[in-house]
Amino acid sequence: MRLRRVALAGCSLVALVWLASSPAAAQSVNRNLIDELNTQLLYVALPLTVFVEVILVYAVVRFSGNDDPKPTIDVPSLELTWTIATAIVLLFVGLSAYVVLTNPYISPGQAAATVDGDDERVQVTGYRYGWQFTYPEANVTTRNELVIPANRSVTLNMTSADTLHALFVPRLGVKKDLFPGEYTRIRTNATRFGEHRAYCTELCGVGHSRMRATVTVVNETAYRTWLADHAGQHSVTEAPPVPE
Ligand SMILES: [Cu+2]
Hints:
Elements: H1 2-20, H2 29-62, H3 76-101, H4 108-114, E1 120-127, E2 130-135, E3 140-143, E4 145-149, E5 154-160, E6 165-169, E7 174-178, E8 184-188, E9 194-200, E10 212-218, H5 220-230
Helix pairs in contact: 1-2, 2-3
């Protein structure tokens, strides 16, 4: 009966994690990389968790009535086995994470080095409390509205007008800090059309929760039209407001 309960709990755990690990279709190259790494690590972590839990529950049930415990005998081969197994698991986790972290879409350092002529460039300035997006080549500046073309690499050069901010677009897998007096970069390549929310994730003052923006992914034609329609909108190109 107990074993049946343990088996049931194990199956429920597997089903729960499987459901939780089935993400919606990725919206960008970045998000895809992150989701794939997550799934990969889950495939390793899940059997290990179940294995350890089963042994733990078995030991608790099996030896609960043991009033005269005996010390465990040393088994060098067993100790060697689990040391090597742990090393292999850690190596796998480290390598998998390294491959994703060094990808030009994830690693800011790599992004700075790999900006090429095809990248669409947008200047991002975070300020208390909002976002200014500037498309230098098209002479377009917007507030809290970022429009990017789908299936093209976009480089965001980011800085802050006052204090620390962080741009976070969860569905695109984009997250990066902004610092005053210095530039940070991040790249993305959105693979689906749609509208996404962007947030500031660095507590920057009383208006922090209002610091949101919309990120719209459109096709190339719509993007060009949008840029042309908004060219020369100098009404919003003045310096960001003085912090409250
Ligand atoms: Cu903030």
